[in-house]
Amino acid sequence: MFKKTGSKNGWSRTIVRWVGGLMVASLALTGCSSTGKYPPAPVSASQADYSYVVGAGDNLNIIVWRNPELSTTVPVRPDGKIASPLIDELPVQGKNSVEIARDIEKTLSKYVRDPVVTVIVTSFVGPYSEQIRVVGEAAKPMFLPYKQKMTLLDVMIAVGGLTDFADGNGASILRTAEGNKQYSVRLKDLIRRGDVSANVEMRPGDILIIPQSLL
Which of 34, 64, 158, 206 is buried deepest, with most CB atoms within 10 A? Predict the structure, then answer.
């Protein structure tokens, strides 16, 4: 395989060049086999200012101070609106509880002097645009309300893990918040090998796609 050069130094240089060539070729093949970019490592500070917004299916506990007859618990209708005493319709979808309370105060001020309203969200579904969706070879494909600091592992626990036919390391996250940019994720390494480096932080609106293994 090697051509002897007639000197010990020449022979050594030939081996070094050959080994170096193998390393370069190996790195090139590794780069070509990459299937996608992994999401950035979890950065909780990036979601520190996240505020939950109401969606259809949520329940709101409306408390009007010193006016118990106006206090009530109401569901958010599929059209994103609510109705309560003295309020026929009020759009609430996409707003947080403080914004909704101020809107109710503004409406009630036509009938009550200086109303003070507190709104408490008692069930959480969230708007469709922020829900986490899991499709493909999960044990229980479903949608989940987004929660601050939610991780990929939290999502997989909620959906019961992978099926026997899942290509876990071929899964990907479709990130709608970044213009449907797609990231590869390693579910098999995370769940079945306990590799915590494969865990990443989810973002509102993420879609987790788990394909079927071809083997």
Answer: 206
Helix (H, G, I), strand (E, B) or coil at 86: coil
Residue 154 to residues 27, 149, 212, Cα–Cα distance (Å): 34, 10, 21
CATH number, domain with residue 150: 3.10.560.10
CATH number, domain with residue 67: 3.30.1950.10
pTM of the predicted model as reported, rounded to 2 decimal places: 0.75
Q: Report pLDDT for 214.
A: 86
Please check whether residue 174 is in contact with residue 206, taking contact to mean a CB–CB distance below 8 angstroms: yes
Domain count along the chain? 2
Which among 81, 98, 123 is the end of a domain?
Answer: 123
The model's pLDDT over 61-119, given as tens digits with 9 standing for 90+, comes to: 999 999 999 999 999 999 999 999 999 999 999 999 999 999 999 999 999 999 999 99
Residue where a domain stops, chosen among 85, 100, 123: 123
